Amino acid sequence: MVTHTTLDVKEQLITKLENRTARIAILGMGYVGLPLATVFAETGFEVIGIDPHLAKVEALNRGESYIKDVSTEQVKRLVDAKKLSATADFAAIRQADAVSICVPTPLRKTGDPDLSFILSAADELAKYIHPGMVVVLESTTYPGTTRELLLPKLTENTGLEIGENFFLAFSPERVDPGRQDWTTINTPKVIGGITPACTEVSATWYGQALERVVPVSSTEVAEMTKLLENTFRMINIGMVNEMAIMCDRLGIDVWEVIEAAGTKPFGFMKFTPGPGLGGHCIPIDPLYLSWKLRSLNYTARFIELASEINTGMPRYVISKVQDALNEHQKALKGSQVLVLGAAYKPDIDDLRESPALDVIGLLHQKGARVTYHDPYIPHLDDDGVEMTSVPDLFQAIRQADCVVIITNHSSYDYAAILEQAQLIVDTRNALGVEGKNHSKVFRL
Ligand code: SAJ
Hints:
Bound molecules: ligand SAJ
CATH superfamily of the largest domain: NAD(P)-binding Rossmann-like Domain
Radius of gyration: 24 Å
Shape: elongated
CATH topology of the largest domain: Rossmann fold
Number of domains: 2
Oligomer: single chain
Distance between the termini: 62 Å
């Protein structure tokens, strides 16, 4: 029931959001939270970033960025203008009017969703939450999380009444790390509330900073929208990986097939095969959906099949390396293999779920002598095996019995690599036409 006071609460909050006097708190200052904080701060809001990692808090308060997509110049300017600050103390929520939760939603070792970050953020929020607040969850999760987990934690024992003096919504992040053309500001933002008033308040908030907000009817629709987006990518990548395996059996060049199919101006979207599926989103988010459906006695067959194919790609790459070495009468065991590129995709410095780690692990298991090079990843720890990127790339290339291109960073001189390597397995078609039909190049 909307009473005179609750109408005031909602209207007062909307007014503060519209005149940007509302104070913003962002929980989790990672690759989603920091860009979002800067976007709100740039439009005049006073933003406080809350993160348990003191190193991040201190860096931000020194005016330094640790996220490639956010410049230190921008952070310094916003911190100096007192529009952005950071703290590890969740009590700062007490002063906030609007809170965005941007914490990780990884998988446990068992493959089940790990909601511990969302739950601990909710527990902290429940301590300091007050009437007249709007909370938006951005972390990718299964449909129902906001209503079934977050809502009870934020309304039980707090006396808050959802949609009347407290507003809760879900808005999926759509950050594509490293992308310059589509950013937090200009990427349309889907947002769905627990109640229509929740949608109205949260859409008003985000609409003050983002170019386009797309309100939907519920938090479940917003949660499912994100899962459709990422499941779409995972399944199509899995399909094209299986295409690569089938073309190999048929003796057909899958890269030429994909290029040709890509000339279709409608009804086709190009994906390319690779050594596996990396990143903290695409390989993981769809498994939140299949996990939820299993609890409802339904098997999400497309997701499970795509996941099986994608996770099998590193082993398929190893078989290609063995075949390539075999052409040089060499066994994989004892051969020197150089892995080129470790990040999960080109031109970024992120190792999370990178297939390079699986390929390196499998090469070690097979007894190969493994080195790696990645201009963005100076060191890596592969299940306890500490490795350092080789200091002299072309010396390592010349010394390698086989070079495996796993991540096609644009900074590599592929012509020189082709010239100086003895043998190359190219899992990304990085060598392009020069690599096609070249006697020392094997491709997926
Ligand atoms: N990959 C392929 N073949 C392809 C495309 C990608 O093997 O045709 C691999 C990549 O090498 C990488 C993985 O899949 O290992 C994921 O790649 P991605 O391009 O989906 O990149 P992410 O995970 O960094 O970012 C994605 C966003 N990417 C794009 O939309 C292009 C988007 O799906 C989400 O906004 C974001 O995840 C997220 O945060 O969910």
